[in-house]
Amino acid sequence: MVSKTIMCPKCKSHMKIEGNPGEKINVTCSNCNTKGFFTFPEEKHASKKETDSFAIEVNGLTKIFKDLKAVNNLSFKVRKGEIFGLLGPNGAGKTTTIKAILSLIHANSGKIKINEFDIKEEGIKARESVGYLPERVAFYPNLTPLQTMHFFCELWGVDKSVAKPLIKEVGLEDAIGRKVGNFSKGMVQLLGVAQVMIGKPPVYILDEPMGGLDARWVKTIREKIKMLNEEGATILFSSHILSEVENICDRVAIINKGKLIAKDTVENLNKYLKIKPRLEITIKDLDGKVHNVIKDLKVIETVDAKDNKLFVTCESSFRSQVITKLEEAGLKIDNIKTIEPSLEDAFVKLIERDM
Ligand SMILES: Nc1ncnc2c1ncn2[C@@H]1O[C@H](COP(=O)(O)OP(=O)(O)OP(=O)(O)O)[C@@H](O)[C@H]1O
Ligand SMILES: [Mg+2]
């Protein structure tokens, strides 16, 4: 069973539907009651893995600022139809890489292609298929969001009728008549997301698209990214907040100090780093304490306590031994849960290893 967010073609509102790959279902818009049907695509990931055509190819990219190597011989390829996450801590070189892909800065060395067009030899063709959301979005402060969107529609020769639905899609309809100069940082970011979607480009490059947004809008942007990808777009986006990219990226490249330190699916990263699932044991009256009985157990690799929860990492064959020890020490176990490793765990381990 897969879930999808689809847009009503009439009122442009979004709804979540569920079904199996290849299944055709009847859909009624909960907002305007428009009826239609939707066919779930066949398994997408299988076909993505099979494709050998790339939307973005970065080969041996190096960028030096005075004596600082911001990007150091970086190579990665983004497949067509893929959501690719460029991850790394602050200052890792994400924005520099993105700017080099878009020829906004001059790289010292390296070869970059967008949709098979070399950015140096066929720069215009390479860039015309890309929608770019910069890290720091800036608009004319005296314009309203609608005027701003109309301005960009004119610039790119797109019909202005797309402006209002896009403003609604990012949740800015209540601010449609206000001046952008009075917008909060998050609101400007949302307008940036609406603006980048104007021409429905086949490739999106988004530099920290969720930066500065609260949890509700992070969810909205994640859903937008998923929706654009389901419509066929390739998306490269950067982030230093791992929870933002988890579960939506097909693959991730992790960079640190300008160098690639890993590139794979989140699942494979966890596998080869041998990050084990953690046990979350809820214990009555634990009060955030790690008992000596646990500290002394050699089979435990990491242990941590918060409030009434104890977090333990160990080989799965030793789990029952841990539980027995806790019970023998007279602790009352209310619940035991297994937490699967996250991208956060992989990221921390990789950065530590790189240091
Ligand atoms: N124009 C510039 N001149 C000098 N140094 C720069 C310039 N732009 C970036 N840098 C440096 O290059 C390094 C990489 O910066 P970059 O902005 O690419 O990092 P980032 O991964 O995008 O970080 P963040 O998550 O904070 O946005 C940093 O040390 C930064 O100070
Ligand atoms: Mg950046």
Describe the protein in words.
By secondary structure, the protein is an alpha+beta fold. It folds into 3 domains: 2-42, no CATH class; 47-271, 3-Layer(aba) Sandwich (Rossmann fold), CATH 3.40.50; 278-339, Alpha-Beta Plaits, CATH 3.30.70. It has 12 helices and 18 strands. Strands 10-11-12-7-13-14 form a 6-stranded mixed sheet, with helices on both faces. A 4-stranded antiparallel sheet has the order 6-5-8-9. It has a 4-stranded antiparallel sheet with strand order 16-17-15-18, covered by helices on one side. β13 (251-256) and β14 (259-264) form a beta hairpin. The longest helix has 16 residues, at 215-230. It is globular and about 75 Å long. It starts with a strand and ends with a helix. The model has no long low-confidence stretch (mean pLDDT 86). It binds adenosine-5'-triphosphate and magnesium ion. Residues 65, 68, 70, 88, 90-96, 135, 240 line the site of adenosine-5'-triphosphate.
